[in-house]
């Protein structure tokens, strides 16, 4: 699988003298646009977004990086076929280094009086050629020198040799091969990557990546001070004052805070935060306090809007009501048409009475997921409640360890802090809907 193969690149790469510990990334896979406040909140915290190309036909990854040298970038956009480029883009994102190629200025005049391809290092060998293709066949010829620029002509390209003795640099071209057997290669370890698709959250099991020894391996190192091409017209040189990528990386907090390890590193952790089909439980408060300020009607109005307008086809939805105890009102059903949506509407509450036990509602949702054959990892709980429950601290750890994401829509201003913390600790959304008569906060929570 692609994620596992990408982890191999992370592990085999020379990225530290002792390993980098506990890296975290939130990854959003699927369409780029969020359709609601909940979607947008997850998308905004994503470090990596896996989605189709922004421009049709341009199946190329990139990092949104409008930051300074050494600063963390905004996010990585990877297309589905991302195995070979994850580490390259990861270095952009986490360590603030830049590309060591230049499509606009692919060649430069070196102090050696030679025309060099823009790259790091100059130890990467190759040929400079003009390639012309027509009717399915291509011909190549040597590049000519432009008499004005003293550089190669416009269509000249540098073609690296397929097999190299040089192992750097990942920021130039990570897909070419080296023929030397790797020495003891420091690795990133405890790499925890949270991966998400458009609509729901689930956690993958930990993937163990074995140490591999190759006689033919991908480029595995960053340029260091000793082999850095200071003259090359790269963005790395321009943004980082001619420092090598490794000089920048080794001065980062990740590197400063790491310690060498003896023996192989622990396996990395990969968690998938979202997959294509959501598994959602509406957990609705029907305690006596919902009779105040027309909260019950407001909650039902929002829930109806969610079921009829927001939840996507192929999603799984169930419903729990709770007061001092909880009841499963609808087991999970898959939404395929308006028929299933309408099937859920009669299960909305019509009255409210009794005490409040949010933990009972949460635990009933966990049971509902298990009844449907799902683990709690990656499921979503949409909790609509006034949150007035001093006993909610009793299940905080249980919620956090479940892997479920709790989105809390507070009906009124008096929610217990523990309830709010459920959404914060699980990466969910928290929204306050006031008791004002004209308030549309609950509807707005699900709006575009």
TrEMBL record:
Residues 279-448 form the VWFA domain. SUPFAM superfamilies: vWA-like. SMART domains: VWA. PANTHER family: CALCIUM-ACTIVATED CHLORIDE CHANNEL REGULATOR, CALCIUM-ACTIVATED CHLORIDE CHANNEL REGULATOR 4. This is Calcium-activated chloride channel regulator 4A. It comes from Apodemus speciosus (Large Japanese field mouse).
């Amino acid at each position: 699988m692609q994620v596992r193969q990408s982890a191999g690149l992370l592990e085999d790469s020379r990225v530290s003298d002792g390993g980098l510990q506990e890296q975290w990334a939130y990854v959003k896979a699927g369409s780029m646009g969020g359709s609601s406040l909940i979607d947008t909140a997850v998308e905004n915290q994503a470090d990596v977004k896996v989605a189709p190309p922004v421009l049709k036909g341009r199946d190329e990854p990139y990092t949104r990086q409008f930051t300074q040298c050494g600063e963390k970038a905004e996010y990585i956009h990877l297309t589905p076929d991302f195995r070979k480029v994850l580490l390259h883009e990861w270095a952009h994102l986490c360590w603030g280094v830049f590309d060591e190629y230049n499509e606009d200025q692919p060649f430069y005049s070196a102090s050696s009086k030679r025309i060099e391809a823009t790259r790091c290092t100059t130890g990467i060998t190759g040929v400079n050629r003009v390639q012309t293709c027509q009717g399915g066949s291509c011909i190549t010829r040597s590049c000519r020198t432009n008499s004005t620029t003293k550089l190669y002509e416009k269509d000249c390209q540098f073609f690296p040799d397929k097999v190299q003795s040089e192992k750097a640099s990942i920021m130039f071209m990570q897909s070419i091969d080296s023929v030397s057997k790797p020495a003891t290669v420091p690795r990133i370890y405890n790499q925890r990557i949270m991966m998400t698709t458009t609509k729901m959250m689930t956690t993958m099991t930990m993937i163990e990546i074995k140490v591999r020894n190759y006689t033919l391996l991908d480029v595995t190192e960053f340029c260091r001070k000793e082999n850095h091409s200071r003259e090359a017209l790269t963005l790395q040189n321009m943004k980082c004052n001619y420092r090598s990528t490794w000089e920048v990386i080794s001065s980062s907090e990740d590197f400063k805070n790491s310690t060498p390890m003896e023996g192989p590193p622990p396996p990395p952790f990969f968690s998938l935060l979202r997959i294509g089909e959501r598994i959602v439980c509406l957990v609705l408060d029907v305690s006596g306090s919902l009779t105040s300020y027309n909260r019950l009607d407001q909650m039902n109005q929002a829930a109806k809007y969610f079921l009829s307008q927001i939840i996507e086809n192929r999603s799984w939805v169930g419903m729990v009501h709770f007061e001092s105890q909880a009841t499963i009102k609808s087991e999970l059903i898959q939404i395929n048409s308006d028929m299933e949506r309408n099937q859920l509407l009669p299960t909305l509450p019509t009255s409210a009475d009794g005490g409040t036990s949010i933990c009972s509602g949460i635990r009933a949702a966990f049971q509902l997921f298990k009844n449907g054959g799902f683990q709690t990892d990656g499921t979503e709980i949409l909790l609509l409640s006034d949150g007035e429950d001093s006993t909610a601290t009793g299940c905080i750890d249980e919620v956090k360890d479940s892997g479920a994401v709790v989105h809390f829509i507070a009906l009124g201003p008096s929610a217990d802090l523990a309830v709010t913390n459920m959404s914060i600790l699980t990466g969910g959304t928290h929204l306050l809907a006031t008791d004002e008569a004209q308030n549309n906060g609950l509807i707005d929570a699900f709006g575009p």
